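Researcher: For the record, we're logging two predictions in this thread. I'll number them. Prediction 1 follows.
Model: Prediction 1, sequence and structure:
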Amino acid sequence: MGALKQQTVLTGAGLACLRELAPRYVWWKTRDEAMEFPDRVAAQVMNLGTFDDLTAMLEATGEDYLREVLQQAEAGQLDARSWHYWHYRLGLADYGTRAVPPMPVRKTA
């Protein structure tokens, strides 16, 4: 049995921010449907977000939460540019010792 991974708990401010951003970044679902999976909303903003929306989300949710979203991202949630940017921005990679890991891929049976 593997170790349980600690999950960063979103504060009220973090949830409120994602709830506000959800209709712009998960437009094919209602706000409530999108918020059933707040990590997916956050990943969409990380991939497509404007500077203002990214800044607001980062301040409201915190870097630890966004690190978890990035580390648990599914194939196709982030493009290569966003994948690399966020690994460097959140300190999960650097130019010297820690390379950006490969992007997630879909597994087929």
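Researcher: Logged. Prediction 2.
Model: Prediction 2, sequence and structure:
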Amino acid sequence: MECFLTNRVAVVTGGGRGIGEGIALRLAAEGADVVVADQNLGTAKAVAAKVEKAGRKALACGVDVTSWDQVQAMVAQAIRDLGRIDILVNNAGTSPKVDGRKILVHEIDPAQWDQVLAVNLKGAFQCAKAIIPHMIAQKSGRIVSIASISAKTGWAGPAGAHYAASKAGLAALTRFMAHELAPYNILCNALAPGRIETPMRALSNAEENEAMRVRIPLGRFGSVEEVANLVLFLVSDLASYITGEIVDINGGWLID
């Protein structure tokens, strides 16, 4: 039986662990060759090895998405080694905390604000900017960005205002790209996850985690696999008439 993503190439940023790793492996399981892009080359190589074990081609790239030069080099290497790019998953992100708790607005250092916006928003913009011309040339593509429930709410547990602002910006960027790129059959969507069981979540304060859990109608945090399944749907032909959406995946925590 043919897989959903046969003959397609996906770039997954922040692909070395957590949600990014889960997405990379899920796309590979459905036939995609995968560029595992991560600031940590070692973890990128480890995930790329798992992709290859699943029978797909993989390319591990150590890339800081805040660096335009590094992003361009990653895209050039992907085109050279794998021939094309059909899917971009903007997953790379950072959410600083102090002792597992969010940093309040008046406590955020301006340099830290700049860094969070650079990774979470500018990084996604730069990856899209570098890849979009290739998608336009082939008149097809899928871009999925990992935003956050914090982009829609004034309270999202341990996520600080800099994180929320970056994710709200990512949602706006997604909508603009969807409008501009629709004539080229390039579909752009974003996910707005609630609390997902990841290494980043484990850094949060236990009391705040429990306070969030009891707000969730399903009574639990989501899994990496559940996020990866939603990404798979959005990048597949099953979602060929969906673009410009910010899709909630939060167990009912926010129903809008």
